[in-house]
From TrEMBL:
Annotated organism of origin: Xenotaenia resolanae
Domain UBR-type positions: 81-152
Gene name for this UniProt entry: UBR3_2
EC number of the protein: 2.3.2.27
Keyword Zinc found: yes
Signal peptide: none
Catalytic activity: S-ubiquitinyl-[E2 ubiquitin-conjugating enzyme]-L-cysteine + [acceptor protein]-L-lysine = [E2 ubiquitin-conjugating enzyme]-L-cysteine + N(6)-ubiquitinyl-[acceptor protein]-L-lysine
Transmembrane segments: none
Pfam family, any one: zf-UBR
PROSITE patterns: ZF_UBR
Name of the protein this chain belongs to: E3 ubiquitin-protein ligase
Taxonomic placement: Eukaryota, Metazoa, Chordata, Craniata, Vertebrata
Function (record text): Ubiquitin ligase protein which is a component of the N-end rule pathway. Recognizes and binds to proteins bearing specific N-terminal residues that are destabilizing according to the N-end rule, leading to their ubiquitination and subsequent degradation.
Ranges annotated as UBR-type zinc finger: 81-152
Amino acid sequence: MMAASLLRRDKRATAAHLKADLTRTDNSSGLRQLQELLDAVLNPEKPAADTDALDWCKCLIAGGEGFEEFCKTVHSYDNATLCGLVWTANFVAYRCRTCGISPCMSLCAECFNNGDHTSHDFNMFRSQAGGACDCGDSNVMRDSGFCRRHQLGTGENVPSIPRDLLLMSEMVLPRFILCIIQYLRDGYIEPDTSVERDLQKVLQQLEPQITFLEELTKMGGAMRTVLTKILTNQQTYKELSMGQEENLYAKKNYDMYLSALKNSGLVSVEEKTQGAAADIAVGAEGGAGAMVLL
């Protein structure tokens, strides 16, 4: 009932209200409301192409601020000494032979334009297979070619990021990533020609969500740190991917994943045997066996 009430309200106003509740000393009410809202918004039983869910996530992590303004604010706290911007095919980038130590070095437009490449031997190109910006990496290019943001030591001058700026991101993004994982698991069956097409269709349907994750990485080191902590936290992955007992969909989804993994050849016979023995030892939940496979 609470989630239904929140869904009917203005997204930005609701996000601002929840963020205010979550920054209080006693934030239990805000946590409960946010989790109930995310249960409704990030429901993997809904179509993957549901753009309303993505709009909700953008509003929530921005905490009531406009998403574009939020991106600019987070980027202003970028303390990364390397750019590392990743791009896909058809992205326009630059290569400076004067600054490059490696012939494969490449720069995104922002880093190139913020560096001094006057009278240098450079060219602009359209990437065929994708790449990443090397600005700030002294193993690939000379320090003199670094842009103003990624010159050595400049990260030390960036002010500390406010604690509450990424608060909503830390709470919303684990659920968002889990929802993507569940969509992908549902789209996976044993690889044959027809099913590969179905999986490709799932990937195409998830293109807006993947693009959103790319937008987050472009905000710089502060947001990339949040994403890295989420993606490398084993306990978080275990709790979220296996699902709670009352979440029957998450449990069924995870059981299907384990079944596919056991038959995929991605785990050794020994690991399969250990997992099966652990499954028998702990009963129907199979938690220990699941962790062997993980």
